[in-house]
Design brief:
Shape: globular
Mean pLDDT: 81
Structural class: alpha+beta
Strand order of the largest sheet: 2-4-3-6-1-5
CATH topology of the largest domain: Transferase(Phosphotransferase), domain 1
Distance between the termini: 47 Å
Largest sheet: 6 strands, antiparallel
């Protein structure tokens, strides 16, 4: 339907051409004109030139028709046949204005390399060109499975750009990608391609089945629906696992009950349910068939674990995510334990505890007696030496450095690894569900995947940093522990990403971090929306509040003596409720798709002069982030295409400009953060106070997102902000 409307609008545009005689002209630029074949009449000539987006139609005396954008020298105001003084040996044309002023559509528009979130496009300049200022690209949402408010991002590129990569697209979403030109006389004709991004791994982990009743051969469980923003919810699969078999779960060979028995597997799919069937009580083991799977009766003497899988299929591509199973606060619940077993186990535990308490009591008494004897001997020895050794230091000297670090004897081993791990929560492996197919990024020490932490019948979305610490060199492990210690020291703060805990297996350590699917950059670009009288779906209050939250997070890091060095909109995530959290510090640094942010445009002037960064260098970067917020995700210094030119220009005094819709006080606060002498820059606490006073004064429009004449978005240039190179 969309394509049909576009064709209709194009046809009506073609038949709205003008037919204005400009006069008889001498053709002084024939090389810049295009010949129209099958010339029939003056009207057909002008219409054909108009349809090809040329400004002028030229009809020669001999009847040929040409199109072009440039005029020769005027000979007369009328037609050439009416000209009495014209020399017809000259190359004269009757020249008509077609009504076109803007460029034609770009040529050879190609779309390829479509992924979940990215698409690559290329093009060539239009056939009819007068002057092009920029190219405009829009990704208009036609259909999406996401529950987020769909937005249609827009990008602007310079007139010498002919390829780009569009990022931050939604998975499994159909877009109409349009490309047009912008000229001094208005927007040119557009070309478009309808594309659909690939399906993504479901972004939510299914809620674990809740055990309602266990009747031996059957178990009643409560199944709950799961939201999915990365594709359709096609079906759910109920999976039964024999816990007594102690067999590793391999999803690649997961199959039906009968095939699992033939292959010696202790787990199988017992049912496939539609989304409409999911919000009900389901009986595992009722002997019926669901989908194509037999729901076999259970063995009362076996301990089972029941898990749920969410299936998302689109265009023959299937993505699956699994729940963490039937889990209690202490791990996997044992469903079929008899009362006799409980009593027997309890008696065994009581006897063992009694023996242990007796041994500990005996050892404690013996230790106290030994301490008293040893103390009396030391006192007697000191009395004997007091007469002739009164001025001698008692015991060895210990050298203490100014930083408070005490040198330890080399022969005394200190396990820094163990000491560090004692400061952080340990998550049982049964409570951590890592999604191996949902890669969030790659960090210095390994891959980072989405995960879920199960606690008190709730699932917390998280990012699991997979670290094979036993394969690390001693130096790398030391660096890793230092970066982990940074997050441990930070602890908890509303506006700083936190460490949830660590989980260890025989070969791998998972560092589990807080996670949110959106960063501030995506939110800002997504807020670019043409509403009645406004150019942003974000309110001015929200913009200031976000800046305040980031400043509070940075003030807390400053209090913890942590220098960020990479502060920008990409290094801030937006948690549910619009809570901004500063990330990308310490071990919480990872980047997706091998594209690393280039922080040159946010870097303080003293760093370019080879001075070490300090907390006031972060203040400089924060002012650039404030400008980013006001500009709705635009690239700082977007008029400087080469990042290598930025340092020299900033040292010479280049600063981000005052946007037309930012008032003087807010921009002055940014300028204060860009002082050459970093001692003259405000602290983060002072920034919080200043911004908070702005927010509390609604009578003064510090930011105004209302539209005004000739408004244009400051542009976002991905290639200026992202560098394609190996991560770390």
């Amino acid at each position: 339907m969309f394509e049909f409307l576009l064709v209709i609008s194009t046809i009506s545009y073609v038949f709205s051409f003008e037919n204005t005689l400009l006069g008889c002209y001498d053709d002084v630029s024939p090389g810049k004109r295009v010949s129209i074949e099958q010339y029939r009449s003056k009207e057909e000539c002008i219409k054909d030139c108009f349809s090809k987006y040329y400004r002028y139609g030229f009809i020669y005396n001999e009847g040929n028709c040409m199109c072009g954008n440039y005029l020769g020298e005027q000979v007369s105001n009328g037609t050439c046949s009416e000209c009495q003084s014209c020399d017809f040996k000259m190359n004269l044309t009757d020249t008509y204005f077609t009504g076109n002023l803007v460029p034609g559509p770009p040529r050879n528009f190609q779309v390829f390399n479509i992924t979940e979130n990215h698409v690559r496009i290329t093009w060539q300049e239009p056939e009819s060109v007068v002057e092009i200022i920029k190219y405009r690209i829009k990704a208009i949402v036609i259909h999406t499975y996401s529950s987020y408010s769909p937005y249609s991002p827009e990008w602007m590129y310079s007139n010498n750009t002919f390829q780009t990569e569009l990022i931050t697209l939604l998975p499994a979403t159909k877009y109409n990608i349009t490309l047009s030109t912008t000229s001094p006389d208005g927007d040119g004709a557009l070309v478009f391609r309808v594309i659909e991004t690939k399906i993504g791994t479901p972004d939510s982990i299914p809620t674990k089945p809740v055990i309602i009743e266990n009747r031996g051969h059957q178990i009643d469980v409560k199944l709950l629906p799961t939201p999915n923003n990365n594709g359709p919810i096609t079906a759910y699969k109920v999976i039964v696992i024999n816990e007594d078999a102690k067999q590793d779960f391999d999803e690649t060979i997961l199959t039906s009950y009968n095939e699992a028995n033939r292959n010696g597997l202790s787990y199988y799919i017992t049912a496939e349910l539609t989304p409409k069937e999911i919000n009900n009580i389901f009986t595992v083991g009722d002997g019926q068939t669901y989908g194509r799977y037999y729901n076999a009766p259970l063995d009362p003497d076996v301990n089972y674990n029941i898990i749920l899988a969410l299936i998302s299929r689109l265009h023959e591509v299937e993505k699956v995510v699994y729940s963490s199973g039937a889990v209690t606060g202490s791990g996997v619940s044992i469903l079929n334990v008899s009362d006799d077993q409980i009593v027997g186990d309890s008696r065994t535990v009581i006897i063992g505890l009694s023996v242990a308490i007796g041994l500990l009591t005996f050892m404690l008494i013996a230790g106290i007696i030994g301490f008293i004897i040893l103390k009396s001997r030391v006192v007697n020895r000191r009395h004997r030496l007091s007469d002739n050794q009164e001025l001698t230091l008692q015991g060895p000297m210990i050298e203490v450095e100014n930083n408070g670090y005490i040198h330890e004897d080399e022969h005394v081993p200190v396990n820094h690894y163990r000491n560090l791990k004692q400061k952080v929560r340990t998550i049982p492996s049964s409570q951590l569900n890592v999604e191996p197919t949902n890669l969030l990024g790659v960090g210095r020490y390994g891959r980072v995947n989405s995960a879920g932490v199960v606690e008190n019948d709730n699932i917390t979305l998280a990012a699991a940093y997979t670290i094979q610490d036993k394969k690390m060199s001693q130096e790398t492990r030391k660096t890793m522990l230092q970066e982990l210690d940074v997050l441990i020291k930070v602890g908890k703060h509303d506006n700083v990403i936190g460490l949830i805990g660590i989980c260890e297996t025989s070969y791998i350590m998972y560092v589990v971090l807080e996670h949110a699917s959106l960063n501030l950059k995506d939110v800002l670009l997504g807020s670019r929306d043409s509403l009645p009288g406004r150019f942003s779906s974000m309110s001015e209050f929200q913009a200031l509040d976000t800046a305040i939250q980031v400043a509070r997070g940075m003030a807390y890091l400053d209090h913890c003596k942590i220098i960020h060095k990479q502060l920008c909109a990409r290094s801030v995530i937006i948690a549910p409720g619009g809570i901004a959290k500063v990330t990308s510090y310490g071990i919480a640094q990872y980047f997706s798709h091998n594209k690393i942010p280039d922080y040159t445009r946010w870097t303080a002037v003293e760093v370019f002069k080879n001075y070490p960064p300090n907390t006031k260098s972060d203040v400089w970067s924060f002012a650039c982030l404030m400008w980013e917020i006001c500009a709705l995700g635009a690239t700082p210094y977007g008029n400087v295409a080469n990042n290598n030119e930025i340092p020299e220009k900033i040292v010479r005094g280049l600063r981000l400009p005052q946007l037309q819709y930012i008032n003087d006080e807010l921009y002055q606060l940014m300028l204060d953060c860009w002082q050459l002498d970093y001692d003259e820059r405000p602290s983060f606490m002072q920034l919080v106070e200043s911004l908070d006073s702005f927010k509390k004064n609604p009578t003064v429009p510090y930011i105004n997102f209302n539209t005004y004449p000739n408004f244009q978005y400051d542009q976002f240039y991905p290639d200026m902000e992202l560098a394609v190179r190996p991560v770390f």
